[in-house]
Amino acid sequence: MKTKRTHILTLLAAAGLSGMTGCTLLVPTYEPLPEENLAEELPNEYQAEFAPVVDSLDEVSAEQAVASVQQAVEQAQPADPQDVLPSFEEFEELPVQVAEPLIEEPNPFAQMEQEAEVTASAQMPLEENPFATADFEVEEGASSRVVPASFTPEPTVNPAAPNGIPSGATNFHHPEPRLPTPQNPASDPAELTVALTPTAQTHPDEYIFDGGDRNYPVHYQGGEMHGIETEDTVAEFEDDDGKRQVQPTNRVAIYAPRFGSVETVSGIQTDVKLDKPVGGSNTTTTNALAEVRSPVTNTRDTLAAGVGSRSSANAVETTLTPQASRRTDGIIQTQSRSRGQEAQTSVSPGNLETTALQQLNIHIREPSTASARLAPGKEASTSQATQTYSTYRAAATLGREVGGRKGKLHITKEASSLVAKAGDVITFTIRFANTGDYNVSRIRIVDNLTGRLEYVDGTADIEAGGNLGGDLTVEQNKAGGEKLTFTLNQPLQGGQSGTITFRAQVR
Amino acid sequence: MTNEHQQSGHSWVAVMLLAAACCCSAQAQQPARPPSQSPPDRYFPLSQHSPAGQHAHWRNILQGHDPSWLQPLKIEAPGGGRVDIFSGSRVAVGTAVSPARVRANVGHLYRLRISDMPKHPGVELFPTIELIDRLHPPEGHADTFPIPIIFTDADIEAVTRGDLVTRVVYLEQPQLAQVHDPLRRTIPQRVTPNENVLQEADRLGRPMAIIRIGGRRPSTHSADSFFGTGGTIQVAARAESAARPASSPSLIRQTGAAVVRMNRRK
Question: How far is CA A249 from the centre of its chain?
């Protein structure tokens, strides 16, 4: 008992000291506790509060307070031993533990989802940016797929990925801008111009150009090819994706200036245009052109009385009698009583005094008419869950395995002579090759000759992939020349090439 | 008021009146075209009515004169004939038989004399050629593409009637090229005298030379300027030298500023 009293006194003394010194010891005030295990007996909600913040203590009370706090901490619920961090020395001595690789159940949809994601990210810019079509390359590997050139695959740590997903398939760096970086224009075959001298650029009117794609680029509108001007030579084909592409050739500059003349003949006897006879010539003397406008003649008598209007209050005042403008819209006359679905309109005999218009208004307010608009079938709408599900599966099926480069046609044009006079015959050679690994099909090469070149009939030869095959269609273009369309009969396999030759006479 | 004050007052009034008159005249000289009106087509200060040689002179001022380049020309008279070439002197610097191959300096006016035409006996023409532009052929192909200077029977008939034919030879714009040769059309391209033939030629291509065929003849009092501006010209005679022996050396003659080289065609 004495011990309890001493302990209580000690606590009270400590509390008093803390009150004087500002200490914030928290002391529960309930029944006396056993002195040997004070903290153990405290409820859990107080244990967290038993770590006080000591602002200042005097020497005597600090020792007691620290001792009590240490005791409380030691007797508190011990922490999880795994949460206790080792010291640096202990940390260095700890054995390195390598986690075993997790073996998950193969997800049959994981590959399709990843492929769908990659395919969507790779093909979406194609629809938005037509210039990005050439920026895609095919990564060669065990099972490569179409990736943008701006992506660089990261090596995969675990080569034995589940479900046979190849390494480096979906791990990419941050994407770079979609548009291809400007390259050397000279590397583009469409920008090349084969000429004897550089004057083809400075004085192009002295040359005949054939090939390339000048002015409006070739494009499709309504499924038809547009932008084929004279001199243009382009190849149209479909790649393995079924997408139509157009590839222009280089330009060939043939020095062949041609002259014309325009003349005028001035004289008396011939070709004199008589605008008017001699008798009708204007006499442009001062007197003839003088126009007498005396002030008297041009004076307008705009007296105020003649054009003035009196707008006195009496003149503009209109007298509206109260009977003429009065509307007698009494409450009873416009009131209608709708009682549920019966749609009965209660019109009292006294309402017959209303005008016909008011009666019409009453009939419009038929409740049956308004109720017919509330058709429940129109309000109902089906959910879009089915549509969302189909979209997900469609994206998943977009994934494809591409084992090589996409089929692409490279086409060039040559001329047998770069200097020609009128009457000379030039042999043109169009060489094309599939630089990809996949077939390109529906190849059509269009050469819209300028009016200075005349196709020599029967001189066209088409050779593709070692076989002679193709059709030639000759049409007349707007310039009076010919538009040659070479159509290959068979697809061109990857790596194969072909040649088209024809002759044209310089006009 | 003293006389001094009266003089100062009069001068002040005179200055005010002069300033007002200047303001009125300035307002009157302002263009009447509203600002919203679109500008007219390209202005062509030169036309067929400009004096002969003015276009070439302006060309030398604006683009510079290149005395080193001699532009090949091919002069054709209807049915053949003799072509004498003058360049700033009443003495012909060269004589050739149609079609004559000539090299002339750009930016000058030359006078020709066409005679001995089999289809027009006794007819002499003194047309002028004003060379205003040149070609830029590949090396070794300059003589392959001469500027054609063609005289036709219609020109002879027009001159006989007393008309003046002004013809502009232009380099055809290839992208506006016609299927048929525009230089040898059956119906020539012609504009009315009220229209600018230089503007029309510029629309069709690049004007190269202006040919004027009229009835003017030199007289004993004609100045040297009547025969051209003295540009360098070379004449390569062909038909006349054909009868000469093959070992005949080339005849080089210099007249004034022009150098005439009469080569025998091998």
Answer: 30
Token representation of residue A292? 């007498």
Which residues is B169 bridged to in the sheet? A261, B209
Best B44, B73, B150, B179 residue to mutate vs chain A (most A CBs within 10 Å): B179
Domain coverage including residue A122: 111-164
8 Å CB contact of A421 and B145 = yes
Are residues A69 and A12 located together in one domain of the fold?
A: yes
d(CA A228, CA A447): 9
Per residue in B29-51, pLDDT tens? Answer: 444 444 444 445 678 889 888 99
Task: Specify the CATH number for the domain of residue A488.
Answer: 2.60.40
- Tell me which chain A residues have a C-beta less than 8 angstroms from the C-beta of B160: none
Distance from CA of A225 to the nearest CA of B (A): 21
Q: Do A197 and B195 touch (CB under 8 A)?
A: no
Task: Quote the CA–CA distance of B224 and B230 in Å, as a whole number.
Answer: 9
- Report the C-alpha dihedral over residues B194, B195, B196, B202, rounded to 10 degrees: -170
Integer Cα distance of A351 and A334 in angstroms: 8
Which amino acid type is present at position B80?
G
Neighbours of B26 (CB within 10 A): 9
Looking at residue B187, its pLDDT comes to: 79
- Paired tokens of B116: 């001995």
Q: Is residue A412 part of a domain?
A: yes
- C-alpha span between A209 and A452 (Å, rounded): 10
Q: Which of A95, A130, A164 is the last residue of a domain?
A: A164
Task: Give the gap in angstroms from C-alpha B254 to the nearest C-alpha of chain A.
Answer: 31
Task: Tell me which chain A residues have a C-beta less than 8 angstroms from the C-beta of B48.
Answer: 264, 266
Instruction: Please list, in sequence order, all residues whose beta carbon lies within 8 angstroms of the beta carbon of residue A219, skipping any fewer than 6 positions away.
Output: A225, A226, A227
Beta bridge partners, B125, equal B114
Q: Is B64 exposed, middle or buried (0-12, 13-18, 19+ CB in 10 A)?
A: exposed
Closest CA to B89 of B216, B223, B235: B223
Let me know: does A256 contact A250? Beta carbons within 8 Å: no
Q: For helices A59-75 and A2-21, give the axis angle rounded to 10 degrees.
A: 120
Structure tokens at B39: 């500008």
Contact state of B177 with A451 under an 8 Å Cβ cutoff: yes
The mean pLDDT of A433-451, rounded to a whole number, is 91
Is position A361 within any domain?
no
A199 and A156 within one domain: no
- Which residue in B138, B173, B181 is closest to A422 by CB distance? B181
Structural domains counted in chain A: 3
Q: Which residues contact residue A38 at a Cβ distance below 8 angstroms, ignoring those fewer than 6 apart?
A: A68, A71, A72
Please say which residue of A47, A75, A103 terminates a domain: A75
The predicted pLDDT at position A413 comes to 94
pLDDT above 70 as % of chain B: 73
Spatial strand order of the sheet with B100-105 comes to B147-150, B70-76, B100-105, B233-236
Helix/strand/coil for B126: coil
Query: pLDDT (tens digit, 9 = 90+) per residue, A348-405?
Result: 444 444 444 444 444 444 444 444 444 444 444 444 544 545 444 544 445 555 578 8
Nearest to B110 by CA among B133, B97, B126, B134: B126
CA-based nearest residue to A205, from B133, B56, B149, B167: B133
B163, burial (CB in 10 Å: exposed 0-12, middle 13-18, buried 19+): buried
Residue pair A33/A1 in contact (Cβ under 8 Å)? The answer is: no
Structural domain includes residue A227: yes
Type and span of the H or E element at A215: none
Whether residue A138 has pLDDT greater than 90: no
Cβ neighbours of residue A435 closer than 8 Å, sequence gap 6 or more: A405, A408, A409, A410, A495
